[in-house]
Every structure is written in C-alpha cells, then in structure tokens.
Amino acid sequence: MPEPETTGPRVMPPRLPPWLSRAMEPLPLAPLQPVLALMLARIGRAHPGLYDRLGEHAEKRFGLDPTDLPFSFVLEPRPGRPLARAVRVLPDGLDASIRGPLAGLIGMAEGTLDGDALFFSRVLWVEGDVAASLALRNAIDDARIDFGKVLLGGLGPVGARLADVARARMRTLPGIGGQPWN
C-alpha cells in the first residue's frame, strides 16, 4: 500500500545533542523543582484561564517525556494549585503521556509547530487518555505561552533580550524555520 500523501514537508524539530543529554544524566533533579514551580506560577499569572480551560481534565496527571533529555516531567494542572515535577522515569498511573523531542514539545506549546503534524508524522507520541491530551494541547495552544519570557522574564530587559536571541537561534535550526504553523 502506498504511503499517504502529505501537504508539506515532514516536521522534524531539532534534537538536543546526545552528549548533552549524557552530561545531564548524573545531575540531581531537586534544583529543577523550584524552577518548575516558578514557571507554573508565571504561566498562571500570564494566562489566568489556562488551567480552568481543561474542564473535566483539570485534575488529571500528565507525563511529558522529552525523548532527548535524561528526565521527564509530571504535570498536574489543577486550577489554583498546579504542580509540575521532574522525574527520572514517568510513574505508573498517569492519565496521559506525551513523548517527543524537547524542541517539538516547546514548539507545540508556543504555537510555532503544529501539534497535529508532529503527532501524525510520529515525532510526538500520545498514550493514555487522548481526550485529556487534546484538552491540554488546546488549552496550551490557545495561550501561546512564550517560554523565553516565562524563563527569563524575571531578568527584566536583559531577560527579554536573551529570550529574543534564543528564539532567533531556534529559527535557524533545521525543522523549525521560524514560521508559525497557523
């Protein structure tokens, strides 16, 4: 049976170099926890309706597994008290998990990459409650989260400039091209 035709080039976000992933393996995850809490707080302030938009899926547990990092994240987007934590291995009992390269997960969240294209080109994998995963994706997609601002916004104008430089650098990487998908 022939391969189905596609409407454009296959989306292939860049992957972190394997040496970088190996270098991060022995690092402790505890220092990431306050950073994740700060990120969730900033995202909540910038997009106050984000977690409420999940509706019946707001209390579910999501695993986010960047395949090019030596750790994963568990997200509990509960309105008013969201929680994210870094883990070495995703635990059992998650409602849904999403796996793929870090740049693909971030690009989907920022709206620079099409999550459907990533899924159908098998760059991202979704397991478990697909409806919950779609609700999460739609809520994040509507918010258009700027992770550069979230991570570096506390540094004032210097942080904004660093975020712009990082974003410009990402646009030059193969598979990104700097063009929003929509």
How would you explain this protein's 3D organization?
40% of the residues lie in helices and 13% in strands. The chain is an alpha+beta fold and 182 residues long. Mean pLDDT is 80; it is low at 1-9 and 173-182. A hairpin with a 5-residue loop joins strand 1 (62-66) and strand 2 (72-76). It has a single domain, classed as 2-Layer Sandwich (Nonspecific Lipid-transfer Protein, Chain A).
The tally of helices reads 7
Strand content: 5-15%
What's the main sheet like? 5 strands, mixed
CATH superfamily: SCP2 sterol-binding domain
Regions with pLDDT < 50 over 5+ consecutive residues?
1-9, 173-182
Q: What's the N-to-C terminus distance?
A: 31 Å
Which features would summarize this protein structure in a list?
182 residues, alpha+beta, Nonspecific Lipid-transfer Protein, Chain A
At a glance:
The protein contains seven helices and five strands; from the N terminus they run ααββββααβααα. It has 182 residues and is an alpha+beta fold.
Task: Give me the secondary-structure topology.
Layout: H1 18-24, H2 32-46, E1 62-66, E2 72-76, E3 83-87, E4 96-100, H3 102-110, H4 115-120, E5 125-128, H5 130-143, H6 147-152, H7 157-171
Parallel strand pairs: 1-4
Antiparallel strand pairs: 1-2, 2-3, 4-5
